[in-house]
Design brief:
mainly alpha; 5 helices; HPT_dom_sf; HPt domain-containing protein
Length: 111
């Protein structure tokens, strides 16, 4: 569910730096899933936008599937537009689930 190719390129294959980036992402991922969950239950578009915007470049850097990045872009746009629909609720739950899987995989990844 990830590809370290781009991360290796931008860190010049520096294992220590790559591990630091992954560790920071793991924290951001945990923080983001909690924020998305809260945003969903509170129907808080500003919180949704802020965390979608914050995590998006990290997902790209870690080479996650474009489908996940596109879902986060959708959350970001919906939060910015302050629109709330049942579809948005479902997509938030889907992103939370995918981020949890990604977090588990990255926690045990070998760089």
């Amino acid at each position: 569910m990830y590809d370290f190719g781009y991360l290796k390129e931008i860190t010049d294959h520096d294992q220590e730096l790559m591990q630091q980036v992954v560790d920071e992402f793991l924290l951001l991922c945990e923080e983001s899933t909690a924020a998305f969950s809260h945003a969903s239950s509170a129907q808080d578009p500003a919180l949704l936008y802020n965390f979608a915007h914050k995590i998006k470049p990290n997902l790209v850097m870690l080479g996650v599937p474009k489908s996940l990045v596109q879902e986060v872009v959708y959350l970001e746009a919906s939060g910015k537009a302050a629109t709330w629909t049942e579809e948005l609720q479902a997509r938030i739950e889907q992103v939370i689930s995918l981020l949890q899987v990604l977090r588990r995989e990255l926690a045990s990844a070998t760089l």
